[in-house]
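Worked example 2:
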Amino acid sequence: MAIEPGLNLEFIRRSEKPFALGVELAAKMGYKYVEPLVHTGRELMSEAGYYHSVSMEEDPHFIKDILDRHGVKASALSAHCPLMRPEVSVMYLQRAIQFAAVLGAPVVNTDESYRPTWITDDEVWLLMRYTLKTVLRVAERYGIAIGIEPHQEISKTTDGLLKIAGLVDHPLLRINYDTGNAYLAGADIYEALDRIGSKLVHMHAKDISFEHAEAERGKVTGTPVGCACGDGVIDWARVIAILRKHNFNGVLSVECGTPEQAERSLRHLNSVLAAQTAAAG
């Protein structure tokens, strides 16, 4: 696999449409990869077809059938959970890994999530290490990577993100870098990508509008979706050049808010990728 654009199903969240329609729309736009969001249990909005998340109580083969019907693959599963609460995260991530294996998704993305009020500073690292060590036993069996995303109190900095992704010395513990979250948190995303290097396994291609950046940079640790890639503050040519320098082969999973933004993002990323390929000769 070369560097290719993909689409996180968040693009239809505000449209109140179901997973299957999101996959269909992504395929019609020309995307070859999508990133499903999964949850445990049952909840009204997705059951009624108003939300794109998929319950892991469904047989994953039925979800794979939807992907196959439209000729797309899963670049990753979005499976965010509180790593500091192993009683929640261990079973959740283990189930997500098994689900991902059926779908053919090579990565399960997560983040530290919120820090429970009753957890002390010393316990933070012990609990996350325990969760990750336990989950990686299952990840190893299925050959599925765990991608840690910058999104909260610790991972908002590159130092913190790398520390979480280094809590267990395992080749399957990697990083899913979210350019938009990191930029809003105040990180130099280009320097960060250079530091992350070969630990990058998947990327959330999230651009941030100039207005959004001015209003919230340095005040938040992330945002659900961004604007269309190419419309905001992120220099995608520079990002992709850094990825190529580190021999990244994987998916840039676009996180935007509307189908129209998803279409524009694909055109922009494809044009940048084509230009760099042509320049490389």
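The chain has one domain: 4-280. The mean pLDDT is 97.
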